[in-house]
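New to this. Explain the following:
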Amino acid sequence: MEKRPIKTRLVGKEEVFNLLALGECTKLPVLLVGEPGVAKTQTLLDYAAAKYNYSREQVAEKTFVIELDEGTKTSEIKGRVNMKSLLEDKEYKLDAPIADAEFILVNEVDKGTSGVRNTLLSIMREKAIFYGDHIKKCNWQVMAGSCNVIPDDELENPFWDRFVLTQKVERVGVETMHELWKESKLKEITINVPSQQEIAACTIEKKHMKKFLDVIYGVVSDRSAFQVPLIVKAIKLVWQTDDIGAILKACELIAPSRVAEIAAKLESKRENNLRSQIESLKNVIEGGNDAYSQLYVGQICTALNDSLKMAQYKKLSTGLVEDLVTGIAGSNLDYSQKEALLATVKKAVVIEDDENKVADLCHNALND
């Protein structure tokens, strides 16, 4: 499997980089949803730069970024006739940069006209642009769109279903921004990019997949449902997670309204309660009561230890430890407050056969 190092100054965008890797290895379009200024464009550019070993010339040649508005013409997507070739060489030639690009980002995709959207549909669906009886193939490896929010009156529009993988891009938070003001340093993140052969060889427990399909079938199209096995297998490899973790992540991307339901069906009541507690930690922290936050984290740690001692729950519980650590590290607390909570986790949680794992998780999360 390719281990692709990405150099970036962005903070908290690991999930977006993973999503772009998922789009690349599955060849499915992705949609980034988030307010302006959350680095949607820069994330794609950093991802593309890593692919071409930071060659500015190649990045410029192989990427296509466009901002749509109500005045964007179809020709800005389809391309234009090369007048020099037509006049001097009597050759009818179309210049279509989007067709030659390997990394495409269409910003403000919700503002495109029907003509622009129809062209984008053929690029996403058939990887081609149609000019009457002439067809130009597209070479994209990552096809991404972005918008601030999917308009309520368009939720049923089949256009959005073409973006099979949709992820919310969050702001970094006020405390993280304070830290960035002090020091914004280049860091390296390693992303897994599996091959088609590796995805095909990956296996997922059939009974879990059946439960997953039963839960999401009513809210996804047949088009998306057909891609579910591919998506889940690829997620398992990109995120390096187990079957249940891969299914939960897939549900988050294609049917977020069903995450709680599928979690309840796949996890035991014990793990489901723990996950709920960890997800509620953000609200506890935002309450501003440090003593209660410490107590709450301590209670979670006690429950995690009990779960880790049970062989059948060990793998799931280890994943929940990682979620707890990530939740604390990504909170709006200052460095010393995060350090204090993570110290509680390091002291309280013990993973047998890997006694340094929790300490390493805390250290890495705190210093990323």
